[in-house]
């Protein structure tokens, strides 16, 4: 359409997502979003909505992108349970090690800011965390763990996974992150061995 600037929505959403991820919701201004996306204020509002709406879109984008990768990693849980959980953690470690991405996790960062966020954003962060526990619970059930063990390990592994993001942002080394994972894998291995 003549007179209307065209832009690639996916590129803009990725740029906004990285800006929110790097600085957090509260510390990202509309000017920051303009710089990150290359759009002016009116284009952001007319095409992407207000700051809350844009943040929700970015959070959904992030949760879907990494959720798909977690699902793929866990897809072999019934055949190779320990390998599947190790690959689940590898998704997080690869994201953390990627020099083109901010440290940490957008979902974790959002969850930690819940007290100062809008109810809609808070609810979406809680939902994303719940989906991660649910995908883990499904994979752990496929490993034939007892229901109570599958529930407990789903909560534990999700918490460990979120802590990797926090620890990396605080400067933990890859070696330290691997040690955290190894302890969890040892506990899961023992539970699987006890089951058989």
TrEMBL record:
Cross-referenced InterPro entries: Homeodomain-like_sf, HTH_TetR, Tet_transcr_reg_TetR-rel_C_sf, TetR_C
Domain of life: Bacteria
Entry keywords, A to Z: DNA-binding, Transcription, Transcription regulation
HTH tetR-type domain: residues covered: 6-66
Coiled-coil regions, chain positions: none
Molecular-function annotations in GO: DNA binding
Keyword Transcription regulation in record: yes
Keyword Protein biosynthesis annotated: no
Residue ranges of the annotated DNA-binding region, renumbered to this chain: 29-48
Protein name, per record: TetR/AcrR family transcriptional regulator
Source species of the chain: Amycolatopsis rhizosphaerae
């Amino acid at each position: 359409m003549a007179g209307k600037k065209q832009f690639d929505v996916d590129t803009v959403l990725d740029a906004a997502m990285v800006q929110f991820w790097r600085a957090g919701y509260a510390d990202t201004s509309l000017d920051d979003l303009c710089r990150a996306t290359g759009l002016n204020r009116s284009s952001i509002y007319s095409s992407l909505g207000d700051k809350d709406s844009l943040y929700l879109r970015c959070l959904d984008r992030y949760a879907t992108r990494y959720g798909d990768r977690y699902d793929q990693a866990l897809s072999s849980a019934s055949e190779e349970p320990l390998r599947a959980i190790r690959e689940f953690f590898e998704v997080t470690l690869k994201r953390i090690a990627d020099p083109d991405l901010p440290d940490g996790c957008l979902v974790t960062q959002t969850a930690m800011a819940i007290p100062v966020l809008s109810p809609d954003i808070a609810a979406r962060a809680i939902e994303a965390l719940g989906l991660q526990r649910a995908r883990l619970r499904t994979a752990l059930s496929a490993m034939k763990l007892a229901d109570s063990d599958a529930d407990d390990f789903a909560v534990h592994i999700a918490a460990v996974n979120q802590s990797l993001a926090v620890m990396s942002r605080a400067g933990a080394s890859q070696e330290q992150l691997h040690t955290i994972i190894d302890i969890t894998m040892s506990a899961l291995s023992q539970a699987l061995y006890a089951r058989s």
